[in-house]
Amino acid sequence: MRSPIRAAMVLAMAGVLASGQETRSTIRGQVTDQQGAAVPGVRVTVTRTETDTVVTATTNAAGHFEVPLLLPGQYTVSVESAGFKEAVRSGIELRSGSTVDADVTLEIGPLSESVSVTAGAPLIDTSTPASERFALALLRLMTGAASWR
Prior knowledge:
Blueprint: H1 2-19, E1 25-33, E2 43-48, E3 53-58, E4 64-70, E5 73-80, E6 86-94, E7 99-101, E8 104-106, E9 114-118, H2 130-141
């Protein structure tokens, strides 16, 4: 008798937790020079291309930046620092609740010059843990499991 009640409570809690899932996304990355050294204090500009909404960030001492709470959509990341050419990464697509890594390598040169990189293939989506992807792959291999494709 206790098992059905317990199961019902677990399912009810799972529904409540699932409805509170985060829908906003994050773009993060590291800015390095051509030798692979981190570049701190770099201005990072993230622009949502559909609305021209701009959010700025600055890299930390390790050259890392993170721009959270972004709505799903297409984005461009511009990176600029004195002594380097401006670097632009366009075609970055954020899905609901995702985290996308957008690492940038700066080239030495005047800021008036820029280097543009257009995303051809989707960037690495780290929002789903590897353990979850592995579990889903195992589920697909089980006898009688329906294909999710």
